[in-house]
Write a structure and sequence with these properties.
With 267 residues, the protein is mainly alpha-helical. It is 67% helix and 0% strand. Helix 1 packs antiparallel against helix 4 and helix 4 packs antiparallel against helix 7. The chain is globular, with a radius of gyration of 19 Å.
Length: 267
C-alpha cells in the first residue's frame, strides 16, 4: 500500500515565507508604527494614559488591539511554526529560575499595594484588557516572532537572548512620540531590556510562550492599576523591586551570553 504524503507542505502548512531576522524586524517596525500612531493621535500624553477609563480605552486598548490584529494576521498568513512552543528544551541556569520567581513575587507585591477600595470597575476592566493585550502582543512579537526569526538564521542562543531583549528595550523609544519625557524614556529602554531578559527566562524554563505572556500581562496590570497612598512599606518594597528586578535581568542576560555563546539555538 502506498504511503500517504503527510508532510507539512502537502497539508498546506508550510510557511509562505521563510522565518528570518529580516522579516521579523519588518514586523517589529510595522507593529511599532501601528501602535505608536494609533496612540499618538489620541493627543493624550503617555503620563496620563491610565488616569481614567476613557484614557485607557483610547491610548492603550485601541492601539494594542490594532497591533494585535496585525500580528495575528501575519501569523495566519505566514504560517511560521514554533512561535508558541520550542522544538526542544534547553538547559536552564539557576539564575533564570531565580529571576522568574522574583518577578512573580514582584507582581504579587505590586498588587498588594493597589488602591483596591478606590478602584472602580469602569477603570479596572480596561486595565485588565490592556494587560491581556500587551501580554499577548508584545510576547508574540518579541519572544515569539523575533525570537523565531533570529533562531532560524542559525544564531547561537546567547545572541538570540541578547537581541530579543535589546530590541524589546529599543522598542520603548516609541514613548518619545507618545509624550513621555526623554529622561524617563531612556530609563524605560534600559529597564525594558533587562525585563525582557526575565521574560525570555519564562519561555526558556517552560519551552512555551504562554508563561511569558501571563507574566508580562500580569506585571503591566500591577503597574497600571492605581497605587494606594504611599507608606513606608510600599516605598521600601517599590525601591527594592526597582533595584532587584533589573539586577536579576542583567545577571540573566550575562549568564546566558556567557554560557550559550557556542550553543546552537533550538530553531
Amino acid at each position: 500500500m502506498p504511503q500517504s504524503n503527510t508532510s507539512p507542505a502537502s497539508l498546506g502548512r508550510a510557511p509562505r515565507i521563510r522565518p528570518s531576522t529580516g522579516t521579523a524586524l519588518v514586523v517589529v517596525v510595522a507593529y511599532a508604527a501601528v501602535f505608536t500612531l494609533t496612540a499618538a493621535t489620541s493627543g493624550i500624553p503617555y503620563t496620563e494614559w491610565f488616569d481614567s477609563a476613557a484614557n485607557v480605552w483610547r491610548t492603550a486598548v485601541l492601539p494594542l488591539a490594532a497591533g494585535t490584529a496585525l500580528l495575528v494576521a501575519f501569523l495566519w498568513w505566514s504560517r511560521w511554526d514554533r512561535i508558541f512552543r520550542d522544538r526542544e528544551r534547553l538547559p536552564v541556569p539557576m539564575v533564570l529560575w531565580i529571576a522568574a520567581g522574583t518577578f512573580v513575587v514582584g507582581i504579587v507585591l505590586h498588587l498588594a499595594f493597589v488602591d483596591w477600595p478606590g478602584l472602580g470597575l469602569d477603570l479596572l476592566i480596561p486595565i485588565l484588557v490592556a494587560g491581556l493585550l500587551v501580554g499577548f502582543a508584545e510576547e508574540a512579537l518579541f519572544r515569539g516572532i523575533l525570537l523565531r526569526g533570529l533562531r532560524a538564521d542559525g544564531r547561537t542562543e546567547a545572541t538570540v537572548a541578547v537581541l530579543t531583549s535589546v530590541v524589546f528595550g529599543v522598542f520603548h523609544l516609541t514613548n518619545l512620540v507618545t509624550g513621555s519625557p526623554a529622561s524617563a524614556v531612556l530609563n524605560q529602554v534600559l529597564l525594558a531590556t533587562l525585563t525582557g531578559a526575565i521574560l525570555y527566562a519564562f519561555r526558556r524554563i517552560s519551552g512555551l510562550l504562554l508563561p511569558a505572556m501571563i507574566a508580562h500581562g500580569s506585571w503591566d496590570i500591577s503597574l497600571f492599576l492605581p497605587a494606594a497612598d504611599a507608606t513606608e512599606a510600599s516605598s521600601v518594597t517599590g525601591l527594592a523591586l526597582l533595584v532587584v528586578v533589573p539586577v536579576l535581568g542583567l545577571l540573566s542576560l550575562v549568564t546566558v551570553a556567557a554560557t550559550d555563546r557556542h550553543v546552537p539555538s533550538v530553531a
